Amino acid sequence: MSTASEQPLDDDASIGGFRHGRVPRELREQQLLDVAEEVFTELGFDGASIEEVSRRSGVKRPLFYTYFGGKEGLYLACYRRARQQLDQQLASSAAAAIAEKGAGAGVQEVLEGMHHAYFEFLAGSLSRWEMLYGPGAATAGPIAQEVSQLRRNTVELLAGVFRNYVDPAVDDNTVLAFAHAGSGAAEQLAHWWRHAPELTIDQLKDVASRFSWAGLAQLLPSDG
Q1: How much of the chain, in percent, has pLDDT values that exceed 90?
Q2: 144 in a domain, yes or no?
Q3: d(Cα 19, Cα 9) in Å, to the nearest integer?
Q4: Are residues 136 and 214 in the same domain?
Q5: Which of 31, 48, 68 is the last residue of a domain?
Q6: φ/ψ of residue 222, rounded to 5
Q7: Tens of pLDDT along 13-40?
Q8: What's the CA angle centered on 67, arms 141 and 155, to 5 degrees?
Q9: Which of 133, 121, 110, 114 is closest to 40 using CA atoms?
Q10: How many domains does the chain have?
Q11: How many whole angstroms separate alpha carbon 94 and alpha carbon 150?
Q12: Which residue segment(s) compose the domain that 54 sits in?
């Protein structure tokens, strides 16, 4: 029996208020990415296929090749969307902490805000989090290279936030190394949370922030 997520989309139904045959490309792409995300999350990159996404979406295969070029392009489109959403939430949380506290916003408040946003992303967008960190991610070839670069971009975003607070004498490679360490710790904590869901987002935020603060405090100016 098919699950709800496996039910084909009705081509005759309206999408975003547009009737079949008149759906704008951007809206149609997002619709197809939603279905493809489920398939990649469930089956992994190797197990997924254009045929399966086509079956579940009720959209003919040629449209996928027109929009995405093939399975690799479809995967990268899903991955870029998930990564962009996460990065936007992290950046927005840092900006919100600074806006709330003004010039007096400390790195601890910013860390707490970013960690809260990260775990909130996991809780509210599980399939997209799985796209980014799940076991079925593409791990070889040009796709894996772009995936690795997009992950580094997130770490560089974190390093940019750190740079606003650390001692100016600390070199950029050290700041980047601490950003990698903090990012990796949060990712592993999130994996563990999948098996210990009784913890709240606030509890996870506190653990991750305390851990990051213990390391980052070493890089702050002596009067920080």
Answers
A1: 62
A2: yes
A3: 13
A4: yes
A5: 68
A6: -60, -25
A7: 444 554 455 668 888 899 999 999 999 9
A8: 45
A9: 133
A10: 2
A11: 19
A12: 11-68
